[in-house]
């Protein structure tokens, strides 16, 4: 018998060779792929942390944020109205539907869908300086994208306008009033600017003007109370015009005219209204809150034609807050890029928003139409230059009227039925009116609709 | 000769088995590790984008941000003073050293070193709502960490104080003045609050009060001009006390006393001064700008004892800007966590800052000490409860005095020598004084020192 070394079988040779090749392949794959992962290092903890927070289940009725209160080492869920419990799965009974605030959470699903494009990783050394790369603490890329946005949507002319950033249009409201007021009244009240608006109007204009109580201006109330609206009468009026209006969603014009009109176009986007033509007024205010839904970011801008007014507003921003957070500016830029990339496409935010709010309005209108106790504002279909078609209404708010003679306090009527609304008096309108927000979460709208349906069906029952 | 199947060698068996085991190992490794990488998806583009921007080389004399102007598809470098070119490698000749602004970029290297811990990935749906999880739009975790910070450093008592957030202490300055002013003077100017400070003081207090020109208060100037400082004289004074003071770094006390004193403690941190004891005044202002160096984020806070004053300040924040950006609040929380984690350790930000600024002060003092033309403010070593030792000065600013009789305009003297400073008049001080910022980038300080050295050595030459 022969002993010692023998020749291996051919199949075995192939097996060894294949196994060896596989190992070579794995090593090179790992080297290339993981090599990159290991070399990139510093962004990973932040990315991991963010995905972990996002993955926390809140039953679809809430969400956990990176900076939510920590329990057991993890951020806790923050629940939608009427939901509670560790994972927001508990629906509270006897809980009022809250339709008070114009909190634009209806847009949250849009951003979850666009998670990858809309996330931004802020490095520890991002824009530490007071200075940004543009004048007056603004990011040049952000300014450029805002102009692109107006161009893409066609809702405002920007080429003749300077841009002023603000912490929400909230900050720009008083900055504009200040800029249109005289430089110094020197205790001569006759030159004091008189600030007015036409009811129903957004109460911030009045609240701010009275609260800051500048010597250079004075809240003068509703335009319908003015005897003489002729701007040449000598009185220096500053008029607020909100178009579409808050609370009733109607397109508005100036009543007084002249050059001291501040147009608040917060809602002049395809979400809420047909775009008739691009706005081109002297002062136009916009806010990201009502476009992307990022109310918490505090970012708005003003388009301003007059250089002197612009300079005064910029000075206001400097002395009030040294401009707007550069962190916020970065985030808004990222969001705008997503919006612009999707314009006219399947993922168009304006399409998403219009469809969502139109459905909500249609449902609510449908229920209210069978009621004689309540009515809604009349809004007509209009041609929209953005969608290139006639479109049905999709307002941000329902402006409800209590029709029964004896029901003069509509907010109380709804409150008794478990619906929190914002009373007409808050808009200098009759208390027969009250405002319902239609732009909150799906949970909020479902709760609202359900309570309205009960109310209206009780109407039919009690009339039987 | 025998043919057909044969028995493989033992070594070969081991080789096959090992190779096979390796295959199994690699497959499971790739499945676990890379599987995670592939499954996690949405945070990756943001992380990759951020690391790419951070990796752009700006020659150590600048940096590219995610929102820098794009050229050739990439963000471009933003260069330090006197540097230019695509990668900031070009040092400009005849370029003035800019020591004007208190821009705290000396802290940038600290955050680059802490890249992993200080990065934050902001999801597209992060805090879209107006509401935060605390009252008045504040993040509860951030408030908790601010109290922890004061406790860790020992520079302020917080347990008896409410906290108000502001867009920088800038916003809180006017919020505090407003809160301390009467609710409504009703055109009776005798109750108008008189706002004062003691020269040299930070000019924002005066600029803001005059600019916003509220009927409830009036800028009344330097305390040294007041005949009667007795608070019971009937006049309603609101006094600003900055301690350590800007521009001279000295610890200050109220001159007037009473309950309407606003203490601006922007610099009361171990970077700039010994911590003698925890401050415990009725109103204390702080800003993240001078702690972490994130001046661009616009974040500050006020510690307020009196409930009514707190409520008024909160109302100011609501009507001015609906609170502070929730994006910014998240970022600041992340930065505070890094700071707190490193307190008392090798990576302590206070240690880093003190050592940096102390060295700069020492170098500058050394040069100026050989000058008879210029002098600096006198600052003594003091015992610091944070470092548990006597520490040399490390002020944010040099308060330079021109000693020559004929040189009454010190800002002009330095400007002629290629140094931009902030004139004494900006602080209501004599123009014989001017302020140099010592807290900017290393490039800024090197340029400043170099120009000062030339100036002083010319002094020696011309006196020979």
Question: How would the global form of chain A be characterised?
Answer: globular
Radius of gyration of chain A: 28 Å
What's the β-strand tally of chain A? 22
Describe the strand arrangement of the main beta sheet of chain A, using strand numbers. 9-15-14-13-12-10-11
Task: Note down, in words, how this protein is organized.
Chains A, B: Keywords: Membrane, Pyridoxal phosphate, Transmembrane, Transmembrane helix. Two copies of one chain form a homodimer. Chain A has 464 residues and is α/β, with parallel strands linked by helices. Chain A is built from twelve helices and 22 strands. In chain A, the strands form seven sheets. In chain A, strands 9-15-14-13-12-10-11 form a seven-stranded mixed beta sheet, with helices on one face. A four-stranded antiparallel beta sheet of chain A has the order 16-19-22-21, covered by helices on one side. In chain A, strands 1-4 form a two-stranded antiparallel ribbon. In chain A, α6 crosses α7 and α6 (168-180) packs across α8. The longest helix of chain A is centred in the first third of the chain and has 30 residues, at 10-39. Chain A is globular and about 110 Å long. The interface between A and B is large, with 117 and 118 residues.
């Amino acid at each position: 018998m022969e002993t010692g070394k023998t020749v291996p079988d051919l199949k075995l040779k192939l097996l060894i060779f294949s196994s060896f090749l596989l190992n070579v392949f794995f090593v090179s794959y790992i080297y290339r792929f993981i090599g990159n992962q290991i070399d990139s290092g510093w962004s990973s903890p932040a990315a991991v942390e963010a995905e972990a927070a996002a993955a926390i289940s809140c039953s679809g009725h809430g969400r956990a944020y990176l900076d939510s209160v920590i329990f057991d080492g993890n951020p806790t869920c923050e629940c939608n109205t009427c939901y509670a419990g560790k994972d927001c799965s508990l629906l509270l009974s006897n809980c009022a539907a809250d339709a008070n605030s114009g909190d634009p959470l209806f847009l949250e699903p849009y951003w979850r869908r666009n998670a990858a494009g809309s996330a931004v990783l802020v490095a520890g050394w991002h824009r530490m300086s007071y200075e940004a790369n543009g004048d007056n603490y603004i990011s040049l890329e952000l300014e450029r994208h805002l102009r692109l946005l107006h161009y893409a949507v066609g809702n405002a002319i920007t080429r003749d306008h300077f841009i002023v950033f603000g912490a929400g249009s909230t900050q720009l409201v008083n900055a504009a009033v200040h800029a249109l007021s005289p430089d110094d009244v020197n205790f001569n009240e006759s030159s004091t600017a008189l600030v007015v608006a036409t009811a129903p109007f957004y109460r911030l204009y009045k609240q701010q003007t009275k609260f800051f109580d500048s010597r250079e201006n004075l809240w003068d109330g509703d335009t319908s109370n003015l005897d003489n609206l002729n701007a040449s009468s000598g009185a220096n009026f500053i008029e607020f015009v909100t178009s579409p209006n808050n609370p009733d969603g109607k397109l508005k014009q100036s009543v007084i005219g002249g050059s001291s009109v501040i147009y608040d176009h917060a809602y002049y986007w395809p979400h809420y209204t047909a775009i008739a033509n691009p706005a081109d007024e002297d002062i136009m205010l916009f806010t990201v809150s009502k476009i992307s839904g990022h109310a918490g970011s505090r970012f708005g801008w003003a388009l301003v034609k007059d250089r002197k007014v612009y300079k005064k507003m910029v000075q206001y921003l400097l002395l009030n807050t040294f401009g707007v957070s550069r962190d916020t500016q970065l985030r808004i830029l990222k969001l705008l890029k997503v919006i612009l990339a999707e314009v006219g496409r399947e993922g168009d935010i304006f399409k998403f928003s219009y469809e969502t709010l139109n459905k909500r309005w249609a449902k609510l209108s449908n229920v209210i139409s069978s009621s004689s106790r309540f009515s809604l504002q009349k809004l007509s279909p209009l041609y929209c230059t953005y969608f290139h078609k006639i479109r049905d209404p999709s307002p941000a708010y329902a402006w409800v009227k209590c029709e029964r003679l004896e029901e003069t306090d509509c907010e109380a009527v709804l409150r008794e039925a478990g619906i929190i609304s914002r009373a007409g008096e808050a808009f200098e309108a009759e208390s027969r009116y009250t405002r319902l927000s239609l732009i909150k979460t799906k949970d909020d709208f479902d709760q609202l609709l359900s309570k309205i349906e009960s109310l209206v069906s009780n109407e039919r029952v009690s009339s039987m």
